[in-house]
Write a sequence for this structure.
């Protein structure tokens, strides 16, 4: 029902951004629902509560990891949409596909929190984030490809840098699936290493 | 408590749109809560987790389907409200009724995910979306009927096209209920076919 | 940390309204989580699903009723905040207290959905909504009492009308608690009658 | 992907504030999910429901306490971000860390609601809120340290007052952990006393 021949402007862009922010905000806040208070018989609480709370560590880790990943997604989404002044139906569809992945993250996070020592959970988690990140790269590629969607021309070197980054990160996620067949914990460490290196690269490039 | 004799403007319209976007964002994000991590005894996880995750496919399908349907609802809602510059109490009531249906979607989705091979689940799902879509058509009909609610006059041919579409889609949903008495899966395929044909028609008309 | 001597303006007002809208949107969308798909053994689904879905009617009713009540609260909140251009700490505190009640509504709704034929559930529900409505009246009273918080002076007759309405509705909710000692269903009917009469009075007054 | 050399302005600031408001709104609204309707056999409801509802008092208390704490966090966040006209990557990271704590609050609240008479629950709750409050203080310190992030210069005495407050409150939360080893309920009372004294100090200072 969008009128695609006329590019939309102003408050239209704002509404797509608002909906996206709503999905981001809810997805990161729902993550906590997966950390459940353990059930312990009344007379054993004092002795068992500390151990039970410690044994939830895979869920804290999953919360922490998914919170970071969705935050990074938001930051990238934010910088992609900043120069966008108009959008068409394709961009709308890509954005909905991307949001479908973002809203799905609580499920692989819960899987990782419960069966984090199994290869399949790690693979499902990595695959979800790889696809999500690829969709974000597709949104970036689509929006910068067409000057009409942008407020101002983008620096080509910066656009190229972000497209390379936008392909490298999902590639590493997919690589971690291969790693997970040999060592599940090595695969998980790959993610944290990737997040740290990525932050460092960004920091280096812009200061 | 609205002052109906004076049509509201500007930020009033924004607030009704913001509330609606909030409901949309939450409804699509809550859908994932229905995909629950299976409970498997520790020693059987390696062998049973793949099968258990695969057996959740009706829930992934429900997630996918409802995500698309609510996204399409949002897109239509978005294009209805774009030219609206004012609203009155009737529009507010219609919008709340519509949001009541949108916020309800997670329930028939869960029903479909659990008992998707039963006729009743399919009928409840189709009926919910038919009523939701009809309310959206009612909002469109009401807002375009009265020039005073709009920023600028609408093209009558486009308005007619969208009203016809807005009646055809719920009619197909209701038809799928009839189909479901003969074949449950045929009814579900009807929905996907309808979504595809609808996207195609929209694409054809505007390019 | 607000600077109370300087009245806040513009985007400050917007942020308090945005937070409130977020709470409204989430509260009405969470209501659906209380309608749970029944657990039925696989071989009995065909025969028992219709009956089980019908037996959920108190939950549908609770969903419907709370959705209406929160929608009415939103409409009133909306019209109270429309002329507000500034706020001080007292208004902020009153608004948070009110939101605490709005966010609480899913609990009495769940209680009503499960034990709706018991006097206590009806009393808890009525008391929650009476207190919420009174807080809304307090917000209105506070904001219209002080011209400095408003964009433009309000019509005194209209202000008086809304204050009377804002005291009459919680009074009827409290009265329904007394009624519930004699008949639980009469108390519930009182609410629906009140909602209908209220809508009629508003309609009469403004047309 | 932010361009750190150019400070961001206008709608960028708005988007970070909107995301934060979304997380605040969802976190306070999810708190109610922890107050669950008790399961009572049908024939015992009349006699047992009152007692069961009363026995939920630690959960009502947790709801009330966490609602207040998150509201106070919002109020402070709100006044920190009001004069901010730009932000850089550090501020973004600090804000995400802070939101991670805000979104986490429902877990220690549930712990307190279930095992509120145990020292560990009280310590986990106090630690979560102390860390959250310290992150908020870090955001304030960072944003006022650098004039370039602000719309207008801040009064140094007021900045100092809020930094002292921003260190004193988490210190009291940490102190309450020490108190909890001697008396769990004394620790909980410390929080309420702190909230009341804090509100009083703020009121005194600004009137």
């Amino acid at each position: 029902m969008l009128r695609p021949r006329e590019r939309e402007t102003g408050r239209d862009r704002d509404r797509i951004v608002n909906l996206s922010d709503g999905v981001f905000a809810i997805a990161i806040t729902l993550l906590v629902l997966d950390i459940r208070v353990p059930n312990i018989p009344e007379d054993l609480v004092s002795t068992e509560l500390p151990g039970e709370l410690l044994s939830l560590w895979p869920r804290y880790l999953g919360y922490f990891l998914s919170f970071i990943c969705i935050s990074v997604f938001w930051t990238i989404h934010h910088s992609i949409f900043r120069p966008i002044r108009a959008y068409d139906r394709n961009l709308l569809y890509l954005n909905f596909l991307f949001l479908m992945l973002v809203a799905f993250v609580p499920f692989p996070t819960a899987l990782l929190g419960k069966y984090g020592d199994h290869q399949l959970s790690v693979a499902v988690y990595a695959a979800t984030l790889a696809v999500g990140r690829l969709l974000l790269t597709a949104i970036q590629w689509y929006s910068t490809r067409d000057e009409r969607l942008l407020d101002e021309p983008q620096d080509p070197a910066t656009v190229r840098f972000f497209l390379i980054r936008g392909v490298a990160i999902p590639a590493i996620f997919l690589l971690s699936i291969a790693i997970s067949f040999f060592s599940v914990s090595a695969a998980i460490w790959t993610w944290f290493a990737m997040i740290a290196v990525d932050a460092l690269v960004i920091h280096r490039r812009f200061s």
User: Anything to note?
Assistant: Residues 1-8 of chain A have pLDDT under 50 and may be disordered. Chains A and C do not touch (no CB pair under 8 Å).
